[in-house]
Design brief:
The protein has 63 residues and is mainly α. The chain has a domain of 28 residues. Helix 1 packs across helix 2. The radius of gyration is 18 Å and the shape is elongated. It starts with 35 loop residues before the first helix and ends with a helix. 0% of the residues are buried.
Length: 63
């Protein structure tokens, strides 16, 4: 096979999900079982945790 010189396809530097949190600590993988409705809530909260950890802390502190 000949090499593709047109720049299409293949791996790119800096592409893909970042393996570390902003603090530089690697993000570990975890598994859990959840219903579809539970999973949607988990996804929404995970998005908040990653984008605004302070807000997530306040949400968890609320009774």
């Amino acid at each position: 096979m000949s090499e593709n010189k047109n720049g299409w396809g293949g791996a790119r530097a800096g592409a893909g999900r970042k393996p570390t949190a902003p603090e530089g600590i690697p993000r570990k993988q975890h598994q859990l079982r959840a219903s579809d409705s539970e999973w949607e809530k988990i996804r929404q909260f995970a998005k908040i945790v990653k984008s605004d950890p302070g807000r997530a802390d306040r949400m968890l502190a609320t009774k």
